[in-house]
Amino acid sequence: MRTRPTLVDTAHALASGVTTSQEIVESVLAAAEATEPDVHAYVALDAAAARAAARTADATPAAERGPLHGLPVGVKDLIATAGLKTRAGSHSWTHPTDEDAAVVRRLRAAGGIVTGKQHTHEFGYGLDEPPTRHPHDPGRYAGGSTIGGAVSVAVGSSLAAIGTDGGGSIRKPAALHGLVGLKPTHGLVDTAGVVPGVTTNDHVGWITTTVADSALLLAALTGLDPVRTDEGVAGLRIGCVGYFFRDLEPAVDAAVRRGLDRLAAAGAEIVWFEIPELDLVPEAHGTIGASGAAAHHRDVPAHVRAEYAPGVREFLDRAERITEDETARARRVREDVRHAVDAALDRERIDALCSPTLALGALPLATMKPEHDLPRYCRLTAPFNLTGHPAVSVPVERGDEPVGLQVAARYGADAMTLRVAAAVEARHCRPGDGRSGPRT
């Protein structure tokens, strides 16, 4: 398998004159032409606009170039993009707009080039089957709902993908494709222009090939200072919570524990403890997300809703029966869980939490049942959607069945998540390494 291009390496090549934005865009479009008949990552590939933007980028004086100058990036079909319809993965719903979402404006202002809109589950709910397929095994689950973005980065038809994460929708497909998926601290990236509206579980983030690429986007799209990812983990206290190590596939468990051993060998202290309140997450997360979705669709005409996927219609019908008291109770649980996580980080003097991103690998689509299997896929990612803490998935093992290790940290400590993720990335695990920590 050929080496994937990275944002950072490509940016350096551009700055040094080794290549041009037009050459980079042509390479990405060639990858799309070669792979789209099989993987269907894009709902709309905007080749003409990307080529025009590349010509403009190459003519821009060096002093006026931004950090993402001339770099082609895909955008999820839930995020408004001027000049392209936003379909939100739906056959019956479109959102015509002449305005970019806030994150797309930041992307363009930093010099990034939009390659097109990438497939998602209808409204990002994960309850239908988009046409996107896993590039290594089209019969297996490719993740959701930033599925098109992950597959596009995996095959090289974009250098990075901007998406959304309401329960793991960036981190899940990143883990399943051996990529890096960052969900920043809640509110750090503006969600304005994400349609058909977002709930308080939702975050805008991105999928990249490397941790350094993710750090480049973090600075460019938020205005934060550039993040160093080479400081290592010596002296850091890495927390492991029992909740995240229950009911794991043996291969996932083994790979993550090998990763923890590698971090310990690099000088980190691995600290095991419990946060009992995490058991409250699934119900509260589901209630908040469903009630928010119901509110966004309440005024949609009946003839439009009738064309939604059956699973989406059933989900919204159930969601509309959630009472205000149930939603208020779920919000109180969210505050309790958030405080419990923060208190545990303080009590144990933890710099970052590490866990598996997913409890299982890519299931066969033929036997997958969303109502049963999606909660299994979201169980380890949803806690940080509920609490808003930053979290990133980084490959701890690559190959045909990659495994992701999730790193989370305090509010606003996005740089710490990337610092630890970079240490994981630098020490890819191999079969045969030892195991770490207690069994749960």
Automatic annotation (TrEMBL):
Gene3D superfamilies: Amidase signature (AS) domain (3.90.1300.10)
SUPFAM superfamilies: Amidase signature (AS) enzymes
Entry's transmembrane regions: none
All residue ranges annotated as the Amidase domain in the record: 23-418
One Pfam family from the record: Amidase
InterPro entries: Amidase (IPR000120), Amidase_dom (IPR023631), AS_sf (IPR036928)
UniProt superkingdom: Bacteria
PANTHER family: AMIDASE AMID-RELATED, TRANSAMIDASE
Name under which the protein is recorded: Amidase
